[in-house]
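Dear colleagues,

For the upcoming journal club I promised to circulate an example of a predicted protein-ligand complex. I picked one with magnesium ion because it came up in last month's discussion. The inputs are reproduced below in full, followed by the predicted structure.
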Amino acid sequence: MSPQDTDDQQRLELASEARLPSSEAKKGLWKKLKRGLFMTHTELLGRMDAALKGRVVLDEETLEYLEESLIAADLGVETSLQLVERLKLRSRDTEIANPVALRRILADEISELLITTARPVDMTTGPMITLVVGVNGVGKTTTIAKLTRWLLDRDQAVLLAAGDTFRAAAIEQIVLWGERLGVGVVRQRSGGDPAAVVFDAVQAARARKIDHLIVDTAGRLHTKSHLMEELGKIGRVIGREAKDWHCRTLLVLDATTGHNALAQANEFAKAVDLDGVVLTKLDGTAKGGMAVAIACDLGLPVLFLGVGESPEDLVEFDPGEFAAALFD
Ligand SMILES: Nc1nc2c(ncn2[C@@H]2O[C@H](COP(=O)(O)OP(=O)(O)O)[C@@H](O)[C@H]2O)c(=O)[nH]1
Ligand SMILES: [Mg+2]
């Protein structure tokens, strides 16, 4: 076994051990998720109560109201229709006695839909390069800080690359996060070539035996060809300099922007191969159901949820827990 192999193995072993969360940590995550989905949960239940008026008679009219409630909670039209269909089928075999039982069944069905579409990505095995894309202001840089915290908590060595060279303030912002979190940030002057930053960052990551290199990007989407050009150039540098590394592209979407975010997801998916989505700002919106629309309607795996502005405010997406937090 070469020294590199031993090194890798040790890293993997450490990672899998570190991956087992304590039940305290689990409780903390559940609280964060509940807090993040509070507005969505309250509004969804309010609408459902109004539709059911305290009893469950699943006639056409009630089902239509329910369907509207789900669509209004941004679960996506396709998915909402599918859920009501499944509910109809289930109500034929089992009596749904009360609104609580109905909520439980809906949570079950959503969880099942999410499980069939979800593609959980293991973020803990390096070495890996993560490109973070998304339009300005959605929370890319903050998400990078959160992912860094998440990886540091799992004993992973992290390096950041200030690939958003478009605005000087963006470079300062990621450098500041790096200082706060105690990880290095590879940067060049503003206006520089993002691909050159990535080139430097890969060399530095190799030299420092980094597990995870996370690259911030400007992710401007004013033209699809511009985005593809910029990411294409970065991709070629990675292909040349880090062929043996895992590489993934995560799209960050701002949940508060609702339909706009779904449109962005469509545009980005056409331009780039996306490995997953991080949905941010759930704490400030009742549109948390969007995670379901992204996963089920668009078929993009949702990996993490952002529930605040601190590095700790990140929750791994788990279909069962997400569905339970929506309805329980
Ligand atoms: N409430 C809340 N604010 C967030 C969240 N994620 C990011 N933000 C805020 O959104 C703003 C833009 O974030 P930033 O990371 O700079 O976006 P970028 O332009 O995509 O890099 C900042 O004020 C962040 O603090 C989140 O999950 N919840
Ligand atoms: Mg930024």
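Two points we might discuss: Residues 1-20 have pLDDT under 50 and may be disordered. Residues 134, 136-142, 280-281, 283-284, 306-309, 313 surround guanosine-5'-diphosphate (ligand 1) (CB under 6 Å).

See you all on Thursday,
B. R.
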